[in-house]
UniProtKB/TrEMBL annotation:
It comes from Cryobacterium shii. One of its GO terms (molecular function) is glycosyltransferase activity. Pfam families: Glyco_transf_4, Glycos_transf_1. Signal peptide: none annotated. Keywords: Glycosyltransferase, Transferase. Residues 234-380 form the Glycosyl transferase family domain. This is D-inositol 3-phosphate glycosyltransferase. The lineage of its organism: Bacteria, Bacillati, Actinomycetota, Actinomycetes, Micrococcales. Residues 47-226 form the Glycosyltransferase subfamily 4-like N-terminal domain. InterPro entries: Glyco_trans_1 (IPR001296), Glyco_trans_4-like_N (IPR028098), Glycosyltransferase_grp1 (IPR050194). GO terms for biological process: carbohydrate derivative biosynthetic process.
């Protein structure tokens, strides 16, 4: 990273800022609006954490009066430049010509040489003040090479772990280690062009520094608008476990199903799996084999309104994944006032404080997960409400306006004037 990058030691931590104020939703009148190009390998309508973060960030910046354009692979064969509405805000989106990656159930990618060509065209026509790339893989690599040539400020955010893509490469397992090392070397080159590098949590920042050799990676929460969600404190009428996310291998939904099979029949548990992915059919078969198929609903993809309703009607949220760099779904569950039972892996302990707003279980251990779920499902109304209230309290540190404030500072090359690492994300269990 360039020497001008603000480090954590240079960040000014302000305790007095009122993030509920409408003044934080618009650009300061004394400063010129920023022209931002957000470059991503995945963007809405793709359904994943990185795509959702980029969409919310773009919409938040537009709402504050900045001019934002998006550069991302087209989600279909139709490509070109369009005016689209995301999170209620209009913005220009450059949909790059893309090809389907068939080992994956939905992923599309742009060819590197086309990305370089399109980057030159977009940068020269839009003339952004800053380029913010969301992954180093293809789009981020191409656009940063061209932005660096033009002296444009570059900010990079990492949402990616190479290990998550191994099952979709179709390469022999004997080559996986070499592939991972190569991916991290590529990440080092691309993120090395940035003036500042961010990732959602402190643990994810340490992970990125360890595997790339980068220094001064900033931990900045993806942020969430908690007001969009509706906690339910009415007496429960049943026991409902919810999972939200991609139905893929690294999410370890099979561990959740195995845990549900271990629960006491007296709990009469219903399970809702919200999301789509390549493992849906295998998991349906597993649920049948375990004898719990009648109690498990696979909804596939749902609308935002249907998703909020799913959170509200649930008793507890389960996140068995071992590869979360933050987990927006877990944050949404907390904003909905749900206790969370999550794997003690990667960034999840930053959100789930064991015994306070939920419980952590040993990754891959279905019996431990079953025991922790039982603790929540048999809790007294008073203890259950205490867990819910603590989720609501902890999620306050991840207000989307804090995230927008921080990125505005990074875009302008100013010292960060808002808290980068909250108490919540800095929490690390023993």
């Amino acid at each position: 990273m360039a020497s001008g990058t603000p480090t954590l030691g240079q960040c000014l931590l302000s305790e007095s800022t009122d993030f509920s104020s409408e003044s934080h939703r618009v650009a300061p009148v004394s400063k010129k609006p920023i022209r931002v190009l957000i470059a991503a390998d995945t963007f809405a309508p793709d359904v994943n954490g990185a795509a959702k973060f980029a969409e919310r960030l773009a919409a938040g910046m537009v709402a504050r009066g900045h001019e934002v354009q998006i550069m991302a692979p087209a989600p279909s064969r139709k490509y070109g430049t369009f005016t689209e509405t995301h999170e209620g805000q209009q913005m220009v989106v450059h949909r790059l010509q893309s090809w389907r990656w068939y080992p994956h159930d939905w992923l599309r990618f742009a060819l590197p040489w086309f990305v370089r060509r399109d980057s030159r065209r977009i940068l020269d026509s839009f003339k952004p003040d800053v380029v913010h790339f969301q992954s180093h893989i293809i789009v981020g690599r191409g656009v940063t090479i061209e932005a660096k040539k033009r002296g444009i400020r570059i900010i990079g955010t990492n949402h990616f772990m190479p290990e998550n893509m191994l099952e979709f490469t179709l390469l022999p397992k004997g080559l996986h280690e070499r592939l991972i090392k190569g991916a991290w070397r590529a990440a080092r080159r691309t993120f090395g062009r940035a003036e500042a590098v961010t990732t959602p949590t402190q643990r994810a920042a340490q992970f990125l520094e360890r595997y790339t050799g980068l220094e001064g990676v900033l931990a900045i929460s993806c942020g969430i608008n908690a007001h969009n969600y509706s906690p339910n404190f009415e007496p429960r009428t049943g026991n409902r476990i919810l999972f939200v996310g991609r139905v893929t291998g690294e999410k370890q939904i099979d561990v959740l199903l195995q845990a549900v099979a271990l629960l006491s029949p007296d709990l009469n548990v219903q399970v809702e799996i919200v999301g789509g992915g390549d493992q849906k059919r295998n998991l349906e078969h597993l649920a049948q084999t375990l004898g719990i198929r009648a109690r498990v609903t696979f909804t596939g993809y749902v609308t935002d309104a249907e998703l909020r309703d799913a959170y509200t009607r649930s008793t507890v949220f389960a996140m068995p994944s071992i590869a979360e760099l933050q987990s927006i779904a877990t944050m949404e569950a907390m904003a909905s006032g749900l206790p969370v039972v999550a794997a003690n892996a990667m960034a999840l302990p930053h959100l789930v404080h064991d015994g306070e707003n939920g419980f952590l279980f040993e990754p891959g251990n279905s019996q431990d997960l079953a025991d922790k779920l039982t603790t929540v499902l048999t809790a007294t109304p008073e203890n259950l409400d205490a867990l819910k209230h603590e989720s609501l309290r902890l999620i306050e540190a991840h207000d989307i306006n804090r995230t927008l404030n921080t990125f505005e500072c990074l875009y302008r090359g100013e010292p960060v004037t808002d808290r980068v690492i909250s108490e919540t994300s800095a929490h690390t269990p023993e």
